[in-house]
Amino acid sequence: MSDKSPNRSDVITASEIGDYIYCSVSWYLQRCGHAPESPRLEEGTRKHAEVGEKLTIVQKEKRASKRLRDAAYIVLLIAPLLLVLGSMLGFVVILMLALTLLLVSRIRSGRAKRLKSKYGIPSERVVYSDLKGSARTLFSRRYGIAGKPDYIVRENPSGAYIPVEVKSTNARSPYRGHVLQLAAYCLLIEEKSGTRVPYGILVYADGRQHRIPFDDALRSELLTTIGEMRLYLKEKRVDRNHTSPRKCAACSFSDVCTQVVLNDNK
């Protein structure tokens, strides 16, 4: 499902699409080589590392729980034989061992469930993860976009590949930039897997999951947005796409930006 990213200056990354929706000018300035300085970037890195660690623990606990449960069932198979042999003590010991294994299995399974709930980790099997920054980049030659989803799960029983994107902020409803970034991952996965991606999942800091359908309307909006970005790159100029003074006040590019919004009347 992955491929090496080519050395091409016209490639647009999925994260860039999210940045563009937030502010087209700050996106373009970053594209031109200006480095952003924001505590949100550090918080995002910390959050991804934390979720990556918890995801590893969840997978470990689930495997351990299954092994303990299987061992308990195997032990229980011996119990009837001990009764036939007249060893009541052996039967009781075996029964207690099986119950202990089942109890520990349940404890470890419960830990995995609590972590999944707290960090919004889906129950499906993880088949790809970049939460520790070690995964290979997905690339679409058709659309000239690239990206690395935080992780990908395989849905049961459909077998569909579902991208999951983790955000360090809270949101009452998904931000549009995040939605389009997720849509880009859906498009990348479709090209690499050759299968349809029905939806993606956004997970915010409170652990709440937002399932975003990858329908025709979202696909069309994504492709239109990519087209706009390419046009700006070709023309080597960009128009601001928002009127929010709050965004500008918090922007680390305000000293080099010529389109700063100072108040709501501008």
Describe the model.
It is an enzyme of class 3 (hydrolase). InterPro entries: Cas4_exonuclease (IPR051827), CRISPR-assoc_prot_Cas4 (IPR013343), Dna2/Cas4_DUF83 (IPR022765), PDDEXK-like_dom_sf (IPR011604). Belongs to the CRISPR-associated exonuclease Cas4 family. It holds the Pfam family Cas_Cas4. The structure is a single chain. This protein has a five-stranded mixed β-sheet. The chain has two domains: 12-36 and 124-249, no CATH class; 44-119. A hairpin with a 6-residue loop joins strand 5 and strand 6. Helix 1 (14-22) packs across helix 2, helix 1 packs antiparallel against helix 5 and helix 3 runs antiparallel to helix 4. It has seven helices and eight strands, in the order E-H-H-H-H-E-E-E-E-E-H-E-E-H-H. The chain is an alpha/beta fold and 266 residues long. The two termini are 46 Å apart. The model is unreliable at 2-7 (pLDDT under 50). It has helices at 14-22, 24-31, 39-84, 88-119, 176-193, 216-235, 245-249, and strands at residues 12-13, 125-129, 138-140, 145-147, 151-154, 161-166, 199-203, 209-213.
